[in-house]
Amino acid sequence: MTNKVGVSLFIALLVFAVSVAGYTFGYFNKPELFAYDVQARMLRSEKPVDGNIKVILVDEAALKSMNDIAGRWPWPRAIWSDLLDFLSMGGARAALFDILFLERQDQANDGVLRNSTRDFQNAYHSMMIGREQADLGAKEHAELGQPLPADFVKRFALKNVSGALHVKNGAENNNFSLPINGLSEASKGVAVVEFTPDSDNGHRRTKPLREYQGNYFPVLGLAPFIDNTTHFEIKDGSIKLNGHTIPVDAEGNCIINMYALDKVDTYSISGVFSSLQQIRKGDAGDVLVNPNEFRDSIVFIGTSAVGTADLKAIPMGASAPGVMLHAFLASNYLQNDFMNPPDRRLTYFSIFVGVFLTCWAVMFSRRFAVRILVPLSMLALYLGYAFISFESNAQVEMVPFLFSTFSTGFLSFGFLTFTEGAEKRRVSHLFTQYVSKDVLDEVMHNYKDYAKSSAGQKVEITVLFSDIRGFTTMSETETPEKIVEMLNVHFTVMADIILKHNGTIDKYIGDAIMAFWGAPVRTTDHAERAVLAGQEMLEGLKEVNRILKERGFAHEIAIGVGINTGEATIGNIGSEIKKNYTVVGDTVNLASRLESITKEQKVPLIFSEYTHEKIKDKIDCRRIGNVTVKGRGQAVDIFTTGSTAGKA
């Protein structure tokens, strides 16, 4: 025992240290991201985006339909003025471009876009803020760290911010890209559109606020809800604005709660332009897209065509339009539907519980079922808690707990496997092929006693024989492959039923099954269990014949079941080369004979008077008659159950 305590403590401390180190240094990040994606797809795949949010996409169809008009992508800037005119007709609340206009095209096109942006009054354009690593001597990096234009900061930097985001030294943003001259001044707002992927290149989070040299700018998804009166309160773990609390992690990232991509009101820009042309021609009766569909809506404009290079991997799709992330964040805000990042303290505690409770259960429990059920129950409870928490917008990290629990269980079981005696392994091998898991658990719990009993002893048991009717005829008309397939289907269903009733499968004899109850584990209700198993085997034929019919077998099969109770010799019997744990004696012979007369008696289940005496007060029985079976001089009364009487 002392040695086991020391080994247990060593295993627990080793796994705990490895799990904590793996978690702390980020080795579980990728599998945890995969677990997050699974939860998002399972629990949020039916959740719709807020109805006030619409998305207009430049898709493949739009690129083809606009090719003759606008040419290749990127389109002339004047094209976008038509889109703003259309949204203005419908009374859209805001138009937000997830399309960067960073380089000048020509004065005419740029001027049209600036004018339409100014006329629309509620258009938001995109900028980028990020960090670049400078190459020593590279001229293109000479401008890194330059200040933003003073007029731009004055107009678009957030005005009322208390607190500050934590930024690691050396991780400060040092580069920016702004819209073309005059476009910012014409816009209602300018917001950041850059997303940093996670370690697996998936996109799940963003920094709601981006800092540049002490000034803060919002991302596009929050831009329409912010004005000069909006107050921001930055604290550890949250950003508060307008009565909303956005949970953030230590790096200032918020998790974007996902929605079903097919539950976003999405429009192809080709349909919008086609409808606009009809309206301008005076035909507004039956347009593809009615401008009124955008009334009071927040409209995000982005791209989904492959050539536009804005497809991103998100939990809800491997190549989703990047603009969807902004739309999802906006919906998070409108529905107050933010996801809380995981609590690292809970993760460390879960590792501790998973390690030490699993180690205790496996190493010190005497019952095999407890060794298995305690870790599995913990896993089920924790995973259930994680899924419930996710549905309540709180992420719970699962991978560290799974790793620590499985690792502890694996090492603990490994230790027990190599330290249990050879006798226990021999007994396990002897019985595992014939008995149910419950019976095997009992045998292994007292394996020394059963090792002795396997040498041979006389016990009262109940024996069951089952045989397929007309098997010889079937074997002559079916191919060998079909016969083997049929037997495998039949034996699988019947063996499951026998083991369910804690019977011991002695052997398969051609198309017959021999099983017995009352050994190796002694029971007083072995006759009742055998008869109940026989009844269920007859019911199980329905499932066997259903499967066979699906596989093209022309004939249904039927069986006969014979059962007898009495004393028999049981033990590990055979040659020095091969032995079987089996039973022999007159009790076995009578059970076999009773099975053989089921056909002439036109009753599928027959049991002897000795079995009847054991079950007559528990199971409804009917006497069939009195027979003298081959090889036995004394006649015996035979019975069947009420549920099988009359069924040939």
Describe it.
- 43% of the residues lie in helices and 21% in strands.
- The protein is α/β, with parallel strands linked by helices and 648 residues long.
- Strand 24 (621-627) and strand 25 (636-641) form a beta hairpin.
- The model has no long low-confidence stretch (mean pLDDT 88).
- The chain has three domains: 2-25 and 345-419; 51-334, no CATH class; 424-641, Nucleotide cyclase, GGDEF domain (Alpha-Beta Plaits, 2-Layer Sandwich).
- It is elongated, with a radius of gyration of 38 Å.
- Strands 18, 19, 20, 21, 22, 23, 24 and 25 form an eight-stranded mixed sheet that branches. Strands 1, 2, 3, 5, 6, 14 and 15 form a seven-stranded mixed sheet that branches.
- It starts with a helix and ends in a 7-residue tail after the last strand.
- The longest helix has 25 residues, at 526-550.
